[in-house]
Amino acid sequence: METKDFNSIESKWQANWAKNGLFNTPASPKKKFYLLEMFAYPSGDIHIGHFRNYTIGDVFWRYLKMKGFDILHPFGWDAFGLPAEEAAIKRKLHPGDWTMNNIKTSRETLKQLAISYDWDREVITCTPEYYKWTQWVFLTLYKMGLAYRAGSSVNWCPSCKTVLANEQVEGGICWRCKSEVTKRKLEQWFFKITDYAERLLNDIDKLNGWPENIKIMQKNWIGKSEGTEIKFQIPNPKLQVSVFTTRPDTIYGVTFMVMAPEHPLVKELTTHEHKKEVEEYIRKAALKSEMDRTTTGEKDGVFTGSYAINPLSGEKVQLWVADYVLLHYGTGIVMGVPAHDQRDFLFAKKYNIPMKVVINPKDKSLSTETMTEAYNDPGTMVNSGPFNGINSVEGIKKITEYVKEKGLGKATTHYRLKDWLLSRQRYWGAPIPMIHCPKCGVVPVDEKDLPVLLPPDVKDFIPKGRSPLSDVPSFMNTTCPKCKGHAQRDPDTMDTFVCSSWYHLRYSDPKNSNAPFGKDKVKEWLPVDLYIGGAEHACGHLIYFRFITKVLHDAGWLTFDEPAKRLFNHGMVLDANGEVMSKSKGNVVSPRQLMEEWGIDVSRFAMLFFAPSDWEIKWHEKGLIGAKRFLVRVWNLINASIESRQDGTNSKEETANNNLIALKRKLHQTIKRVTEDIDPKLEFNTAISAIMELVNELYAQIPNPNSPIPNHGVIKEAIKTVVVLLAPFVPHLSEEMWQKLGEKNSIFTQPWPLYDADMLVAEKIELVIQVNGKVKSKIIVSTNAAEDEIKTKALEDDKIKELLDGKTPRKMIIVPKRLVNIVP
Q1: Integer Cα distance of 57 and 66 in angstroms
Q2: pLDDT tens, 366-400?
Q3: What are the residues facing 814 on neighbouring strands?
Q4: N or C: more exposed end of the chain, with fewer CB within 10 A?
Q5: How many other C-beta atoms can be found within 10 angstroms of the C-beta atom of residue 662?
Q6: Distances from the Cα of 148 to the Cαs of 138, 162, 221, 700, in angstroms?
Q7: Residues 117-133: pLDDT tens digits?
Q8: Which three-class secondary structure string do you get for 105-140?
Q9: CA-CA distance, 12 to 370, in Å (whole number)?
Q10: Contact (CB, 8 A) for 433 and 443
Q11: Cα–Cα distance between 581 and 619 in angstroms, integer?
């Protein structure tokens, strides 16, 4: 077969599937399955990484179809965002034109690849029909007290000229343009995701179908810490500040305190002598990312010149500023206990800050003069006033109770998770549906007035540190919904993560113009049964995805509060040198190129056979050559079986033929392996390997390449089963072979084959016979043969009889299903 033959077959069956609506979603599912891959950002045509991801979903869809499921398998486009706007600026185009052209190109490619999407359910987030409901999501959160506006220090990309969420800052640089990120004070909109921190954390335990690494990453990102908040007095100026600690048992060992550079009290607490040094330190800290500030390495800081009073010991402790402390964690101030915390130990050594031992290990007294590292394990409390002699674990509870009783503090919980900053100072996004009125303040747009349309006639998208929309009077000038007076719209647009936080719900009812979705439709299809996408979204999209689902559940729109039962992370596709494919490197392999040179089925088969679906793979042409060779081999086998004119043999002949018995056993073993490798493992490479072994077994039944294939019933059954098992992997070729075998209906209406458990185990096995530990012969026995039967058969073997020469063995040892050892 040549590529043109594959192409011809592929065109034929794609037309057939379209005509018969193979990929259409059933109206009223009886046995539902919602299969979803993360939608694409339309930055150009889809690339080979998309091809792999979407093919994984397609294989599973075809398998489910043959298993009798009613399947929802939609697709859409995450179409707002910076890349389209930057591309439009560069090419002097409108972002909408750039985006929609890319969508058109990518959609055509996906249709040519015959990915099993129901295109009637397509969503595009940059269309008013969609972002009307993204704005509705915003207003829903606002009404629930979960959306608010506040001034804050934010991540600012000077190149993109926009705010970045923490998840979009990687090692201190912008995730998109790779510029160094700085800090900037702005009024921003936030979603109060921290109100859901505990639920998001606890409900991770409900995500039984999610990978452990994703669950661990989310737990760490939410970052729950249970501890004690303790108040320290500052005599000059007279102030009171609180610190959060998970180790209140070490309170008597505090010799210094550290404040975050952004803490509002830093300026007030810095003395005149230290002002210049502190200001310079704060300036440098603002240039660092959170990761740079908090990762391991040598820590630095500056003394403010002020002191606080330890509320339990009454001792003075130094007040420092250091960038390893984050304003949003705890109270933005931490206590330094150098004798019992390694970071504090190194900091104190570096700046010659005093140390004080307050916990001793068992049967040993520590001295700060001889300590080479901090002691941070449990032990006996010392130098701790009335708490001396108490075990430090018990001391945590005792001191927490004491400070609460004395009004000096309380038990509390803090989270690493911060509220979701969603304002963006860019044009290409969903406008925030809020109005600023000089009389009424900030007022929400009436739902009946949604969508707040993005003005199409904006000419200048170049950001200037403010949203381009702020320079469009026709957009900005409006009427206050409350007082009907002159007001202005909010000029910012929303983070694109808002669009993708609820898209899984819209797919259930994508053409609804009266609501984001019908409650009955969502109840019918949701939650998602299998969600496929990259692990890099663990602490961004997947957190927001879960959060908005919970919010809409609480608002009465959903009967479930987790979006997906199962999550599968696909691996990346690298080039032959192990490099990540990118347009800038010029190493991208196009699916269109593969289709033209090899055909879709050969390309799919090679892709799926490279490695397990969750592994990285190196793309190389060698795999395509091998894939084509195997598929041609199967094609030839089908043709040879069709041309065979031999009469079928009767069942007695097949029963007596050991080769056919072995083939039948192999057939059922293959069905079992392929079924289990597809579901639940999605390990398509091993499923394909099992099919290859069965094909080899079939070829072993052919006396020679030029003779007809024996027309035994088991051979005919095995050949048909090979075609059925191949169908999810090479759908077009399988349809063609199925038709060649005389079948009239689509192979995807054929039930998935079932294996016979009784056929999985061999009826007879071969046992090795050893004499004094050396192999001398072999015998065939029944798998359930008794020991006496095995001994008798071994002694009747001609070679063994000759060796024993009429003597009775002293001992016979039988290792079940393996060997017989005779000791003469």
Answers
A1: 14
A2: 999 999 999 999 999 999 999 999 999 999 999 99
A3: 820
A4: C
A5: 17
A6: 10, 19, 22, 72
A7: 999 999 999 999 999 99
A8: HHHHHHHHCCCCCCHHHCEECCCHHHHHHHHHHHHH
A9: 83
A10: no
A11: 10
